[in-house]
């Protein structure tokens, strides 16, 4: 009889292993045996072990070291200790650190069997929960990239091909085109999906803080560093770091980042200890980094490091055929939220299809959210749409001089965004206003 579970027995005394092994085999377990810890680690790596029974005192690495290895690398595998009288204390202390149970040698076999059955059951439950979680995450619609144009299928194909590779990915595109969504999609469909996804917006964090944000710092590393802090690269541990708007990083930090990518080690500020880090890097930019290299603002060597795989997300106006799908999906989402049933008229859809969408998909999403919230009828008519869209339609037909200051401002902002390829800092410069003032207007006009 087999099939009750895979058990690993570790004991340096061959006889002890033999006796226990035959008892458990009779009980229907598949038993693997090892006389030392090194062999046991090997078995764990190559088999799907459900529970471990280990001796405590062994020459070489002992049971406690093995326990530490299991807790760190396979935390779901329950460990049961067998221990001689003299070592009971260590077994008890292991229990407080998560060991499943301990028995004093020779164990009471019927009880051992009972405890083992519970350990295996716990392991199976954990696995089941994991499976359910996996399914939930995999089917997680929130990271679904909507679109049926060839541009989107190409992007999906690249995402699929690179998701489990270690290659650095650079996602470029205008504001609101879905760069972060693509990064999330890659992470949550990769084998790292259970590990953290850590996003850092390099444009939003003041230059002097970003270094400690990324690398962490020790207590007292600088004025205001009241306690030790873990940086984002450490926090990501085995997950994905998403550096948003990497073009905003200053040259000294670019040099530091390059070193981290080469060495896979970081140093917290105020410390000279190297810490190994494991993460997958995805970066995004809405600047033309090649141009930034020529202008001396971006390191060429860093560019080639982060740009192993490049995904260029085209603006929405270059893939208008995706608009109906997006509209339908967003409409459904916001109707559910607002508990309304609303459809869209053909004239309204026509306007959506013709508009230039300077804020791309985020802009479209916001317009739909706002329209659904404000809608009184069951169908969205052209007149229900925000002025900026309706005006745009009219402007195409008969270009007119904008007749209110607000309209002038709105069109100036859109022109600046177009001229700067969606780069907000540059657009603000073109308009001669501060980034902050520019963002305020973007929000006012619902462009972000
Ligand atoms: N293809 C798509 N399908 C569905 N939703 C999308 C798609 N692309 C973008 N979105 C949605 O549009 C919004 C903006 O996307 P996201 O934040 O990824 O853009 P971004 O390129 O990172 O913008 P920014 O440059 O301003 O940071 C999000 O709500 C995102 O879910
Ligand atoms: Mg973004």
What features would you describe in this structure?
The chain is α/β, with parallel strands linked by helices and about 450 residues long. The protein folds into four domains: about 5-135, Rossmann fold (3-Layer(aba) Sandwich), CATH 3.40.50; about 150-315, P-loop containing nucleotide triphosphate hydrolases (Rossmann fold), CATH 3.40.50; about 315-400, Helicase, Ruva Protein, domain 3 (Orthogonal Bundle), CATH 1.10.8.60; about 400-448, Orthogonal Bundle (Arc Repressor Mutant, subunit A), CATH 1.10.10. The chain has helices spanning about 15-25, 35-45, 65-75, 90-95, 110-140, 150-160, 180-190, 205-215, 230-235, 250-265, 290-295, 300-305, 325-340, 345-355, 360-375, 385-395, 405-420, 425-430, 435-445; strands at about 5-10, 30-35, 50-55, 80-85, 100-105, 170-175, 195-200, 215, 230, 240-245, 265, 275, 280-285, 310-315, 345, 380. The protein is elongated and about 90 Å long. Magnesium ion (MG) binds near residues 179 and 244.
């Amino acid at each position: 009889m087999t099939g009750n579970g895979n058990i690993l027995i570790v004991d340096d005394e061959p006889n002890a292993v033999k006796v226990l092994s035959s008892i458990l085999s009779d009980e229907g377990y598949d038993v693997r045996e090892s006389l030392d810890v090194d062999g046991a680690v090997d078995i764990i790596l190559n088999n799907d072990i459900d529970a471990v029974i280990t001796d405590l005192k062994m020459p070489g690495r002992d049971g406690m070291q093995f326990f530490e290895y299991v807790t760190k690398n396979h935390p779901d595998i329950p460990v049961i200790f067998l221990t001689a009288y003299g070592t009971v204390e260590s077994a008890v202390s292991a229990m407080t650190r998560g060991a499943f149970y301990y028995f004093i040698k020779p164990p009471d076999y019927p009880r051992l069997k009972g405890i083992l059955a519970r350990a295996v059951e716990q392991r199976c439950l954990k696995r089941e929960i994991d499976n359910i979680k996996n399914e939930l995450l995999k089917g997680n619609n929130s990271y679904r990239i909507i679109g049926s144009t060839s541009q989107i299928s190409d992007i999906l194909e690249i995402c699929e091909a690179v998701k489990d590779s270690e290659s650095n990915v650079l996602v470029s595109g205008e504001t609101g085109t879905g760069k972060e969504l693509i990064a999330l999609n890659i992470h949550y469909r990769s084998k790292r999906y259970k590990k953290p996804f850590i996003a850092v917006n390099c444009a939003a964090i003041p230059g002097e803080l970003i270094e400690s944000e990324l690398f962490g710092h020790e207590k007292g590393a600088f004025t205001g560093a009241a306690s030790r802090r873990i940086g984002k690269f450490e926090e990501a541990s085995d997950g994905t770091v998403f550096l948003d708007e990497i073009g905003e990083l200053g040259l000294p930090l670019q040099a530091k980042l390059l070193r981290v990518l080469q060495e896979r080690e970081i140093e917290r500020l105020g410390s000279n200890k190297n810490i190994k880090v494991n993460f997958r890097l995805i970066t995004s930019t809405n600047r033309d980094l090649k141009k930034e290299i020529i202008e001396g603002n971006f390191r060429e060597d860093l560019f080639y490091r982060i740009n192993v795989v490049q995904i260029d997300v085209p603006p929405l106006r270059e893939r208008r055929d995706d608009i109906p799908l997006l509209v339908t999906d967003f409409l459904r989402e916001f109707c559910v939220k607002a508990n309304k049933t609303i459809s869209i008229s053909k004239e309204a859809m026509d306007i959506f299809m013709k508009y230039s969408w300077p804020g791309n998909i985020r802009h479209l999403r916001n317009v739909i959210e706002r329209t659904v919230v404000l809608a009184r009828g069951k169908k969205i008519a052209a007149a229900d749409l925000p002025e900026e869209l309706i005006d745009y339609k009219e402007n195409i037909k008969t270009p007119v001089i904008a007749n209110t200051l607000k309209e002038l401002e709105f069109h100036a902002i859109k022109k600046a965004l177009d001229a700067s390829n969606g780069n907000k800092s540059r657009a603000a410069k073109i308009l001669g206003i501060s980034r902050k003032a520019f963002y305020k207007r973007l929000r006012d006009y619902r462009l972000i």
